[in-house]
Amino acid sequence: MKQLFFDKIAYDRQVCDFCGTCVGVCPQDAIELTEADFTITERCTLCKNCVRVCPLRALEFIDER
Ligand code: SF4
Ligand code: SF4
Hints:
Number of helices: 2
Shape: globular
Helix content: 10-25%
Bound molecules: iron/sulfur cluster
Oligomer: single chain
Number of strands: 5
Distance between the termini: 22 Å
CATH topology: Alpha-Beta Plaits
CATH class: Alpha Beta
Protein backbone atom coordinates (compact mmCIF):
# COMPACT_ATOMS: atom_id res chain seq x y z
CA MET A 1 0.00 0.00 0.00
CA LYS A 2 1.24 3.46 -0.80
CA GLN A 3 1.78 6.10 1.84
CA LEU A 4 0.86 9.66 1.02
CA PHE A 5 2.67 12.64 2.51
CA PHE A 6 1.08 16.11 2.53
CA ASP A 7 -1.38 14.88 -0.13
CA LYS A 8 1.48 15.30 -2.61
CA ILE A 9 4.17 12.67 -2.39
CA ALA A 10 3.25 9.01 -2.70
CA TYR A 11 5.68 6.39 -1.47
CA ASP A 12 5.45 2.71 -2.46
CA ARG A 13 7.18 0.44 0.02
CA GLN A 14 6.75 -2.58 -2.24
CA VAL A 15 8.94 -0.92 -4.85
CA CYS A 16 11.53 0.82 -2.65
CA ASP A 17 14.82 -1.01 -2.07
CA PHE A 18 16.04 1.39 0.64
CA CYS A 19 18.96 2.61 -1.47
CA GLY A 20 18.97 5.98 0.31
CA THR A 21 19.36 8.05 -2.85
CA CYS A 22 16.34 10.20 -1.96
CA VAL A 23 17.74 10.90 1.49
CA GLY A 24 21.00 12.11 -0.05
CA VAL A 25 19.39 14.70 -2.31
CA CYS A 26 16.89 16.20 0.12
CA PRO A 27 17.99 19.77 0.84
CA GLN A 28 15.87 19.85 3.99
CA ASP A 29 17.08 16.56 5.45
CA ALA A 30 13.39 15.75 5.66
CA ILE A 31 13.44 12.05 4.79
CA GLU A 32 13.82 9.53 7.56
CA LEU A 33 14.49 6.06 6.20
CA THR A 34 15.07 2.71 7.82
CA GLU A 35 14.19 -0.72 6.50
CA ALA A 36 11.18 -0.63 8.76
CA ASP A 37 9.95 2.86 8.11
CA PHE A 38 9.92 5.70 5.60
CA THR A 39 8.81 9.14 6.70
CA ILE A 40 8.90 12.61 5.23
CA THR A 41 8.90 15.15 8.01
CA GLU A 42 7.37 18.61 8.01
CA ARG A 43 10.69 20.14 6.98
CA CYS A 44 9.77 19.09 3.42
CA THR A 45 9.28 21.98 0.99
CA LEU A 46 7.89 19.78 -1.83
CA CYS A 47 10.91 20.52 -4.02
CA LYS A 48 10.51 17.11 -5.75
CA ASN A 49 14.22 16.29 -5.71
CA CYS A 50 13.55 12.94 -4.09
CA VAL A 51 10.87 12.07 -6.65
CA ARG A 52 13.20 12.92 -9.52
CA VAL A 53 16.13 10.84 -8.35
CA CYS A 54 14.44 7.67 -7.16
CA PRO A 55 15.82 5.00 -9.53
CA LEU A 56 12.86 2.69 -8.95
CA ARG A 57 10.13 5.31 -9.09
CA ALA A 58 8.98 4.39 -5.63
CA LEU A 59 8.18 8.07 -5.11
CA GLU A 60 5.57 9.88 -7.12
CA PHE A 61 4.50 13.50 -7.04
CA ILE A 62 0.75 13.98 -7.16
CA ASP A 63 0.00 17.09 -9.17
CA GLU A 64 -2.89 19.44 -8.57
CA ARG A 65 -5.98 18.47 -10.43
S1 SF4 B 1 15.46 6.63 -3.76
FE1 SF4 B 1 13.58 5.45 -4.07
S2 SF4 B 1 14.21 3.32 -3.86
FE2 SF4 B 1 15.82 4.57 -2.97
S3 SF4 B 1 15.29 4.72 -0.77
FE3 SF4 B 1 14.39 6.49 -1.79
S4 SF4 B 1 12.30 5.87 -2.28
FE4 SF4 B 1 13.47 4.00 -1.86
S1 SF4 C 1 10.24 16.96 -1.89
FE1 SF4 C 1 12.27 17.89 -1.54
S2 SF4 C 1 12.19 18.64 0.57
FE2 SF4 C 1 10.52 17.18 0.34
S3 SF4 C 1 11.35 15.22 1.01
FE3 SF4 C 1 11.63 15.33 -1.22
S4 SF4 C 1 13.68 16.16 -1.52
FE4 SF4 C 1 13.07 16.58 0.60
